[in-house]
Structures are given as C-alpha cells and as structure tokens.
Amino acid sequence: MLLPAADSVWCSQGGNFKKVIVLVGTVPYKTDVYTGIARIDEDYLYIEKTRFNIERGTAAMAASCAQICRFYGLPMPLCIFGGDISDGKGTELMFQNLNLDIAKYNSEIVTLHYMFPKIAYGEPFVTKINSLPRKPQLVADAGGMYLMKTIKQSQFFDVFTPDEGELLFLADEYASHPLYVRSELINKITDKDSLVQSAYRNGNAAKTIIVKGKTDYIYRERIRVKEYKGPDIPAMEAIGGTGDTITGMLTGLRFGKEEDPDYKALVINRLIGKHIKCTPATQIKEFITAIPIVLEDYERNNK
Amino acid sequence: MLNLIKKLFSRRYERPKGILLYGSVQEVILTNELLASHGFQVRLVAPPPEVRVGCDLAVEFDLIEQEAIETLLKLEGNQPQKIVSTKNMLPDLLKKSDIIEIDGYLMCKAGNMKITIDSHEHKIVNVSGGGCPDIPYVAQQLYRTRLEEARKPVDLGNSLCSFLLQIAFGALKEEISRK
Predict the structure, then answer these.
(1) How many CB atoms lie within 10 A of CB A49?
(2) Quick check: ipTM above 0.90?
(3) What is the per-residue pLDDT for B82?
(4) Rounded to whole angstroms, how far apart are CA atoms A6 and A163?
(5) What percent of chain B has pLDDT over 70?
(6) Average pLDDT over residues A231-241
(7) Which of A242, A237, A179, A247 has its CA nearest to residue A208?
(8) Higher pLDDT, A264 or B73
(9) Mean pLDDT score of chain B, rounded to an integer?
(10) What is the CA radius of gyration of chain A?
C-alpha cells in the first residue's frame, strides 16, 4: 500500500510544523535533486513522482527508515537525494539544496549516507547546522562519514556506523579513504577497542560509534557500552545493504524515542536475517520488506 | 672505517618523485597502465595532503622521466591536470585481499569492499560495502553477471571504492582460474 505524501506536514506553514527526519544521500540516477516525503510499497521508495529501487545504498537506508516510521505511526522521513553515478555533480546539487533549505525544516535528525566526500560540500553544511536554533541529531554512514573525517568534523556528529573496513579508516589518522589504511592497523582488525580508541584520540569518531561486524559493538564517548553477538549469520556480511538497513532503522528508532534505539536496530537486523533464512545471494529488499513482521514479533516478545 | 659506518647508517638515497593528478580515478588507472606498458617505473599512490581533494588517486613516477612522460601523454591526448612532487605513499591495502567461503559462495574482501559469487556458475550475487556514490550503480551493473564476463568495476565506476572493488574482483578471478 502506498502512503499518501500528505501524511506528514514537515515544512513551515504558519510557524506550526512537525519535527522531521531528513535523509541525505546520492542515488544512481540522472543528475538532479530529488526532494520530498518518502513513500514506500513492497518494491520501491517514492519521492514525488520518482520511483527508486530499494536494492542498495541510500534508497535502501531510506526505505528501512520509512518502514520504522510507518510501523510506529511516525511522520515519514523527508529525503534529499542527489542523482549521482560518479561525477560528483549530484552530490554538489544535493548539498546546495540541503544547505539552502535545512533551516526551513524542523529537523530532529539528519542522516548523511552515500556521497562524494569532497571538502567543499561538507564545510558549508556544518556551518549551516551550527546556525540553526537547535542542533539536530546527526548520523553519518558511508560517504557521509568519509566526508566528516576529511573535514575533521567527526566529533560534531552523534552517530557513526562503520563496518570493520571503515573502522580501520577512522582509526588511521592519515588515511583519506579506506584504500589508504596502513598495514599495522589492518593487522589489528580483531582489536576493536584499540581501533576505536585510536579513532576517538585522533578526533575521527562521532559521540557514538556503532561497529557492524561478526559481533556488533556500541561505543559512547570512548566506552564500549554494549555488544551484540547472535544470531551469528555469516551470510549477512556478503549482502549489500545490511549496514544501510541498520543506519535507516536506528534513525527511525531514535526519532521515535524508542528505548535503546541503536541496540534495537542491531537486534532487529539480525533477527530479519534469521527470519528470512538469508544466504549470501539474498538481496537487501527482502530484509526491508521483512522489517514490520520481525518488529511485530519483537515487540510482542518484549512486552 | 668511519666513512664505511657513516655509509651503512646513512638514509638510503631516494630518487626524487613526481605525481600526475587527474580529474577522475579512472583516468589515473588508465594512465598508470599506459605508462607501465611503455616501461616507465610508475605506481599508484595517495596524493599528498596539500593537493588532496578528499577522494583521489595519483600516478607516481621518477622525476627524471618527467619530460618523456609528458611527451608520451601529450601524444596520447592524456595530459594530467597537474604534476607535483610527492613522498612515497603506496596504499597498503593494494597488497591485501581475503577470500572466504560461505555456504557454497565465495566472498572476496578488499578494505571496505566485498564481492560475492556462487561457486558453481560464478555469477555475482552481491556487492557490499563502500561509501562513494558510484558503488550502488556498479553493484547494479555487476549483479547476476558471470565473473568471467563481467565488466571491470573500474570501467563502470571511477571512485576509490570502485578501485578497491576492482582489487577484490581481480583476486576472485585469479582464485577461480587457479581451481
């Protein structure tokens, strides 16, 4: 079922407007900016009249967030997507629009996802967020995280969601991209605590770091506060988008002020993998479709 | 004797290097291949911080060969945006990739990128990781194609994530050809 766009009033109209999630990232579509409230059905994510595949990347993250919002009856997220295959033009247009319009929204959370990590785009964004009367929660994954490290604004963010390869990149003070991580750090991959401490020490960590891997870890202000081990499903590492679903879900759960939202997102993600009996060939769309069913079970069992 | 000790403990002489900077990673890779095929001592490096724009790669060469390289690139219509000197910074990840078997599938990891094929037909079933914007597009293009017939990730995308994916893709191809 397609939800109507009028489901949420997100923009200032007579000064009375709802708090909103703002999801920002690139999609592999023609160079343009796609802005609007997300709508979802079983197969696609819609923004205005454009239909996006939810098979990977930003659209998968946004669809996961939208599933959470729909499940809990929250306003659907506002998306600002840049159509960008690889030339960076869509990233630039996306940030121009975001920086121009962000003050119009009563944004509660802003999540940055896939994008070209170019310095010129990030600094004006940080300046703009600083100028808002109330700073929204800031979440970054993928290119959004690379960008904040590049411009040395990681600490300005509330949440980073690196996988193991990205944690190495955050831990390496010199690497400008995960490609350039040093051997001595690569050899420390099993020592998450040490890598996370290095990321914090060098100012390359957000307040909360959620490390996605065989065991998921949550660190807050340098301290490991939680870890989640099971069910152990090795196939999930191969499936493109299992990190995107975590980022999308935790954004929605934080917005809904759910208890322990980051941990809950990690748990739901693995329960979905178990529920759909995923294999390395499973596509992320199957995960996203299963979010409400697994969430319902989870809520019933945790009352 | 004193001279011999000094010589033994002195820093080894390093030939001065230069780097070629281009607008895209794809151009860098092509230039590297072109120069190597003409016998130049070249390699891929991270640009130094002062010329870095956040997500880029460069070709390092011996400064002594600059003129010959510039002439060749001019002839080929492949001139760089900029030439600068740099220190040696070979990405360590270029030397490392891991192949893991999971339930009848082979997954290869290089840095933050992973590519998975089924062991029998060698069809690409998933691409995971990466934060640059071309990755969803590259993954979409590779999905369901046989590894032997698939286009190279660096021909489809031009970010560093695509380049890492290329390393994993190449390692997987090598592994299959060995079997």
Answers:
(1) 7
(2) no
(3) 80
(4) 36
(5) 78
(6) 94
(7) A247
(8) A264
(9) 81
(10) 18
Residue A187: half-sphere exposure toward Cβ, Cα within 13 Å: 5
CB-based contacts of A223, cutoff 8 Å, min separation 6: none
Q: What does residue A118 show for φ and ψ, rounded to 5 degrees?
A: -100, 135
Q: Could you say which residues from 84 to 143 on chain B have a Cβ atom under 8 Å away from some Cβ of chain A?
A: 89, 91-96, 100, 102-103, 105, 107, 109, 111-114, 116, 118, 125-137, 139-140, 143
Distance of CA B120 to the CA centre of its chain: 29
For residue A114, which residues of chain B lie inside 8 Å, CB to CB?
131-133, 135-136
DSSP summary character for residue A5? G
Q: Where are the alpha helices (DSSP H) in A179-259?
A: 183-186, 192-201, 235-238, 242-255
Q: Is the pLDDT of residue A70 over 50?
A: yes
Tokens describing residue B118: 């089924």
**Cβ distance of A143 and B133 shorter than 8 Å:** yes
Task: Give residue B91's pLDDT band: very low, low, confident or very high (50, 70, 90).
Answer: low
What is the token pair recorded at B78?
Answer: 């492949």
- Give B20: exposed, middle or buried? Use CB within 10 Å, 0-12, 13-18, 19+: buried
Which helix or strand (DSSP H or E) is residue A209 part of? strand A208-211
The closest of A57, A116, A89 to B132, measured between CA atoms, is A116
Beta carbons of B135 and A281 less than 8 Å apart: no
DSSP codes, A111-142: EE-S----HHHHHHHHHHHHTSSSPPEEEE-H
d(CA A294, CA A287): 10
Q: How does pLDDT run across B106-160, given as a tens digit for each residue?
A: 999 988 899 999 999 999 999 998 888 889 889 999 999 999 999 999 888 877 7
B25 touches B159 (CB < 8 A): yes
